[in-house]
Specification:
Keywords: ATP-binding, Biotin, Ligase, Mitochondrion, Nucleotide-binding, Transit peptide
Distance between the termini: 72 Å
Helix content: 25-40%
Cofactor: biotin
Strand order of the largest sheet: 14-13-10-11-12-15-23-21-20
Number of strands: 40
Shape: globular
Structural class: alpha+beta
CATH topology of the largest domain: D-amino Acid Aminotransferase, Chain A, domain 1
CATH architecture of the largest domain: 2-Layer Sandwich
Protein name: Methylcrotonoyl-CoA carboxylase
CATH superfamily of the largest domain: ATP-grasp fold, B domain
Number of helices: 17
Subcellular location: Mitochondrion matrix
Number of domains: 5
Largest sheet: 9 strands, antiparallel
GO molecular function: ATP binding; ligase activity; metal ion binding
CATH class of the largest domain: Alpha Beta
Radius of gyration: 27 Å
């Protein structure tokens, strides 16, 4: 076994690999860019090595710097993780030439399966079913348009080297083909250095089901069952689970056999994933093979009890795979939810900034921990894989994935309960996240009833967003109680250092010279509405004076978590817990049915409102303007693309919120814009 390896990656996957290496007694070397000098993976590794600037092209995508670092530190192997260089055949080849083991498949296997057009040809010859489409070399726009017409709409445009949701668009009608093709080609060129595309027939009611495979250097190949990855946004997975409810044993065996055939065809070694699309008729087709460790590999680990990273390392070291297919058993149901720094209300655009507050269940430990708080969850487990901590900066340079939350239980129903509980114990301040949106999905009746197809998020987006924004009165009340407790703690601290600690001026209990008055807290919600909450406090009991009837609640505080005991029990449907984080005047309040964001405001504060009919079209993140599609004076329709930005290797369109007129375009193609910069002056049509 290796004595020391270099991890050619960052964030949560680097930490995940470090964890297994520590258990196996393998030394680890982390690499870091200028943006990651204080990152968690650098702190946790045994050694570290600086490799360049924040931009991936100056650091994490530099083969020469990775090899130099490995040689300098005396590493015998390099684990690429996922993303960056993990599916770069030239990297695997240069590792081999340098006498360093690449923890992954051969360069030849990566090349065969890395290009979608070639991979489909190889699979077709091997008898694995493929989606009908165009996979040819000719890439002129005229040729692609003609082929699209032959296939028919809707169809998919995919980058030949695409992955991770980048370089992919669904085109529903002919007139949208040109813009979609341009976006895919641009994304593909920037992310993968190759603008070639393929076209595929769009499968009706598509379900994304993949099989984990493992192959050693002695010709042994096994599968580790399936993962259903159908719940997606922007063609990128956000929820994965196993087993799939749509597979009976007969179809499961057919798909598993096809996955093993695919791996054997390319003499695959290491961990890989064969991805299929399955339609409403239960027919399945090969989509692609990911020749690396997947983001969602913990789902498989939870149902099998196996450590896939350990198996990768043992295979790379030349050990024989002692797992036969019959020895691989699964138990229960596992679900993973990806926690992203992004804003679902702006089309899931990434969010950047400093993590001012961060709370995970079980103190964010990256290991299984029993879920507490309900008898029904006693046999459920939650695992958090993360690469960030409070105070870290979420940068524009890298993927906005912050953490993965994985739960395991005996049934899918109990796994969903465990996930709901875990999400209610998770909060972030400082950047926008999809946490509330994830809660909406796990509370959705259709999702709870059965697994969904890949159109689930798009088809229910409005209702999922509305559900996320509903805030019950009791959440306002208890958030105000939290503010009172924070103020009280600060007053006691001030009094401790005061010349007169007993002075009433150092108290926060609404003391007045003529008697007591209610404690008042003013909270502004996401709509900009300000609510005054009036409470009367006596020790740990609080009377809510806003309520139409007399309501009181006893509160016990454990860190940021408030345990609640209402005077009338739970007959009003009030929650029993509220997790509250605050930073300066910002608050997030989290409960089992969602979360709410507030700003605490001075009641005398006045904010000028934008005149009706005016819209501020601002940059949702820092990035580059790459296309301006309108000019001053032009009339546009609601939903029309006005301008396209590029950030985090993906294109993001700024669209017209209503029918209106473009008054002025403030930036040109190539301009760098900062977060919040006004891009276009726009007025609504009467």
């Amino acid at each position: 076994m290796f004595k020391k390896i270099l991890i050619a990656n960052r964030g949560e996957i680097a930490l995940r690999i470090i964890g297994t290496c520590n258990r196996m007694g393998i030394g680890t070397v982390a690499v870091f860019s200028e943006a990651d000098s204080d990152a968690l993976h650098v702190k946790e590794a045994d050694e570290s090595c600086f490799i360049g600037g924040a931009a991936p092209g100056e650091s994490y995508l530099r083969i020469d710097k990775m090899l130099d670092a490995a040689k300098e530190k005396g590493c015998e192997a390099i684990h690429p993780g996922y993303g960056f260089l993990s599916e770069n055949a030239e990297f695997a080849r240069q590792c081999l030439c340098s006498g360093i083991t690449f923890v992954g498949p051969s360069a030849e296997a990566i090349e065969l399966m890395g290009e979608k057009d070639k991979a489909k040809g190889v699979m077709e010859k091997a008898g694995v079913p493929i989606v009908p489409g165009y996979f040819g070399e000719e890439q002129s726009k005229q040729c692609l348009r003609e082929e699209a017409d032959n296939i028919g709409y809707p169809l998919m445009i995919k980058a030949v080297l695409g992955g991770g949701g980048k370089g992919m668009r669904v085109v529903h009608k002919k007139e949208d083909f040109g813009n979609a093709l341009t976006s895919v080609q641009n994304e593909a060129q920037k992310a993968f250095g190759d603008s070639r595309v393929i076209l595929e027939c769009f499968v009706k009611q598509p379900r994304h089901i993949e099989f984990q495979v493992l192959g050693d250097q002695h010709g042994n190949i096994v599968h580790m069952f399936e993962r259903d990855c159908s719940v997606q946004r922007r063609h990128q997975k956000i929820i994965e689970e196993s087993p799939s409810l749509f597979l009976d044993n007969k179809i499961r065996k057919k798909m598993a056999d096809a996955a093993v055939t695919a791996a054997k065809t390319v003499k695959y070694t290491g961990a890989g994933t064969v991805e299929f699309i399955m339609g409403e008729d239960s027919r399945f087709y090969f989509m692609e093979m990911n020749t690396r460790l997947q983001v969602e590999h913990p789902v498989t680990e939870m149902i099998t009890g196996l450590d896939i990273v350990e198996l990768q390392l043992r295979i790379a070291a030349g050990e024989k795979l002692h797992l036969t297919q019959s020895k691989i058993r699964r138990s229960g149901h596992a679900i993973e939810a990806r926690i992203y720094a992004e804003n679902p209300e702006t089309g899931f655009l990434p969010s950047t900034g400093k993590l001012q507050g961060l709370v995970f269940p079980a103190a964010g430990q990256s290991e299984q921990a029993a879920a507490q708080g309900a008898d029904s969850l006693s046999s459920s487990f939650v695992r958090i894989d993360t690469g960030v901590e409070e105070g870290d900066q979420i940068s524009i340079d890298y993927d906005p994935l912050m953490a993965k939350m994985i739960v395991h239980a005996d049934t899918r129903k109990n796994a969903i309960k465990a996930m709901r509980y875990a999400l209610a114990q998770t909060a972030v301040l400082g950047v926008e996240t999809n946490l509330g949106f994830l809660q909406s999905i796990f509370l959705d009746g259709n999702f709870e009833k059965s697994q969904q197809d890949t159109l689930f998020v798009d088809s229910r987006l409005d209702s999922l967003l509305v559900q996320e924004k509903c805030t019950a009165d009791w959440v306002y009340w208890i958030s105000a109680v939290y503010c009172f407790l924070v103020d009280l703690a600060q007053a006691e601290k001030n009094a401790l250092y005061s010349l007169d600690p007993s002075s009433p001026w150092n108290r926060k209990n609404s003391w007045r010279a003529v008697g007591h008055e209610p404690y008042r807290v003013h909270l502004r919600n996401h709509k900009g509405e300000v609510t005054e909450i009036r409470i009367a406090a006596k020790e740990n009991s609080f009377q809510i004076l806003n309520a139409t009837e007399q309501i009181s609640v006893s509160v016990s505080q454990i860190g940021n978590l408030l345990e609640l005991n209402w005077s009338d029990g739970d007959k009003n449907g009030f929650g029993s817990q509220l997790l509250v984080l605050h930073h300066e005047n910002q608050l997030v309040a989290v409960h089992e049915h969602g979360r709410a964001y507030f700003r605490r405001v001075d009641p005398l504060f006045f904010e000028k409102q934008t005149e009706k009919g005016e819209f501020r079209l601002s940059a949702p993140m820092p990035g580059n303007v790459i296309r301006v599609l309108v000019k001053a004076g032009e009339r546009v329709s609601r939903g029309q693309q006005l301008l396209v930005m590029e950030a985090m290797k993906m294109e993001h369109a700024i669209i017209a919120p209503v029918d209106g007129v473009v008054e002025k375009v403030l930036f040109n193609p190539g301009d760098l814009v900062q977060n919040g910069s006004e891009l276009i002056e726009f007025t609504q049509l009467e």
